UniProtKB/TrEMBL annotation:
Molybdate binds at S70, S98, V200, Y218. Residues 1-27 are annotated as: Disordered. This is Molybdate transport system substrate-binding protein. Keywords: Metal-binding, Molybdenum, Signal. The keyword Nucleotide-binding does not apply. Belongs to the bacterial solute-binding protein ModA family. GO terms for biological process: molybdate ion transport. The lineage of its organism: Bacteria, Bacillati, Actinomycetota, Actinomycetes, Micrococcales. GO terms for molecular function: metal ion binding; molybdate ion binding. Pfam families: SBP_bac_11. It comes from the Bacteria. Gene3D superfamilies: Periplasmic binding protein-like II. InterPro entries: ModA, ModA/WtpA.
Length: 277
């Protein structure tokens, strides 16, 4: 059975447009002066990540799998592999930033299985008791991508202040990871005018399209665009927890994600082992 993908994974070169405010971000105290891009604002404001109503065949279990944007390429592969082994279960994928997925859950659109791009994101759940933490499904490392390969041979501190930089919002895991690296490197002021994106795939898209000279993304996202050069950073890897709801189908899929087959798919996609349960 074919999994249904409910949201645009924002692959390089595709970006929405509009003027709405970034939902849930307007009261966030910014650690630096950043511009919220029209595209990022429109995405959240228009509710593009909300789950759409989908039908299921008679006798078919409906399983909603909410995954972070960095799972854009691997989530369908995971859903395909699971569906092939579990007749009667149709995984429906919804993609977005971890913050947006948690906001959806808090608003009453709770997925059966939730994976976030760091272990801090689930702390914002209004009813954390609705989910059980099964373990850590994967890990991912922050890198700096650029369209200028020559920059890979130069000191980042030397060219970053003059570059057009894209970052994830500070309440998004990739934004928290970038902020931590910038603080430790003493480069917070170098990105004072960086543009702020709603999720990691929007950062990648901005660099891929030439709208930014550099952007902070995960290693797996950098691999999605071989035209860019990824500069490794000394940063602690983000760990991706898997949380499941009360249904047997949710627990079964969550446990499967921690198993050998799913872990092989994730490793092939460039993710690091998460450590499991």
């Amino acid at each position: 059975m074919t999994p249904v993908v409910e949201a645009d994974p924002w692959r390089p070169g595709t970006r929405p447009d509009g003027d709405a405010k970034l939902a849930g971000m307007h009261n966030t105290p910014w650690p630096r002066r950043l511009r919220v891009t029209r595209a990022a604002a429109a995405l959240a404001g228009a509710g593009a990540l909300a789950l759409a109503a989908t039908g299921c065949a008679a006798g078919e279990a409906h399983l909603v799998f909410a995954a972070p944007s960095s799972f854009a390429d691997v989530a369908p592969k995971l859903a395909d592999a699971y569906a092939a082994e579990h007749e009667g279960t149709r995984p429906t994928i919804t993609l977005g930033s971890s913050a947006q997925l948690v906001q959806q859950a808090n608003a009453g659109t709770a997925p059966d299985v939730l994976v976030t791009a760091d272990e801090r994101a689930p702390e914002a759940l209004t009813d954390p008791g609705d989910y059980e933490h099964l373990g850590v499904v994967a890990a991912n490392t922050l890198v700096l991508v650029t369209g200028d390969a020559a920059r890979a041979h130069d000191d980042v501190a030397a060219w970053l202040p003059a570059a057009r930089v894209a970052l994830c919002a500070p309440d998004v895991p990739c934004g928290r990871a970038a902020d931590a690296w910038l603080r430790e490197s003493g480069l917070e002021s170098a990105v004072a005018d960086a543009s702020l994106e709603a999720n990691v795939r929007q950062v990648l898209s901005k660099v891929s399209s030439g709208q930014a000279d550099a952007g902070f993304v995960y290693a797996t996202d950098a691999a999605a665009d071989p035209s860019l050069t990824a500069i490794p950073l000394e940063a602690e890897a983000n760990r991706y927890p898997v949380l499941v709801g009360e249904s047997d189908a949710a627990r079964d899929f969550g446990s499967w994600l921690l198993g050998d087959e799913a872990q092989e798919i994730l490793t092939d996609a460039g993710f690091e082992p998460g450590g499991g349960r």
